[in-house]
Amino acid sequence: MSAPEVRLRPVTENDLVMFRRFATEPGLIGLDWAGFRDAQAPARRFATDGYLGVDDSRIIVEADGTAAGLMSWSARVAGVSRYWEMGIALLPDWRGRGIGWRAQAMLCDYLFTHTPVERIQAVTHAENIAEQRSLEKAGFRLEGVLRSVEFLAGQWRDGWMYSRLRSDPRPPNP
């Protein structure tokens, strides 16, 4: 079986169904499920800026022409410097097929080309081995553990911090 063709594209109104699913279906988003969310919020945000904001944005990950999930990036600030934190959520049918790391590498290429940041970071859960491998394959390096950084499922959880710098080697053939 060949790897699916991966591409990133802006959100369309038809994609809001998937966004609503992530907000209302327990477990669909995996370890990041934080309880039920406003199912109408995606439509309000889409009407505001199509999910392409100055400080935070979302785009669709397509695999073989089908919406397979979404990616996000948000501005973070350290002193006077600005950098991005990115995330990804793939629908269960599309996980484990090499889509995630390729989409992450493609988003880094996009952000390094179109924004003047030096750093992109991502945080994942200690038990999310698949995401750790995906980030490493996309050119990210593990920086360390953020202890008790997130409250989910009734407990405080550690996060594993990864980053990719503009000067880091680009992964081959994303």
Oligomer: single chain
Q: What is the string of SSEs from the N terminus onward?
A: EHHEEEHEHEE
End-to-end Cα distance, whole Å, is 17 Å
CATH T-level fold name: Aminopeptidase
Uncertain stretches: none
Our Rg estimate from Cα atoms comes to: 16 Å
Structural class computed from helices and strand pairing = alpha+beta
Biggest sheet overview: 7 strands, mixed
Tell me roughly what share of residues is in helical segments: 10-25%
How would the global form be characterised? globular
Number of alpha- plus pi-helical segments: 4
Strand order of the largest sheet: 1-2-3-4-5-7-6
Number of structurally distinct domains: 1
Annotation, overall tally of beta strands: 7
Determine the mean pLDDT. Answer: 94
Report on this model:
It is a single chain. With 174 residues, the chain is an alpha+beta fold. It has a single domain, classed as 3-Layer(aba) Sandwich (Aminopeptidase). 25% of the residues lie in helices and 38% in strands. Strand 3 and strand 4 form a beta hairpin. Helix 3 crosses helix 4. The longest helix is centred in the middle third of the chain and has 16 residues. The protein starts with 5 loop residues before the first strand and ends in a 9-residue tail after the last strand. The model has no long low-confidence stretch (mean pLDDT 94).
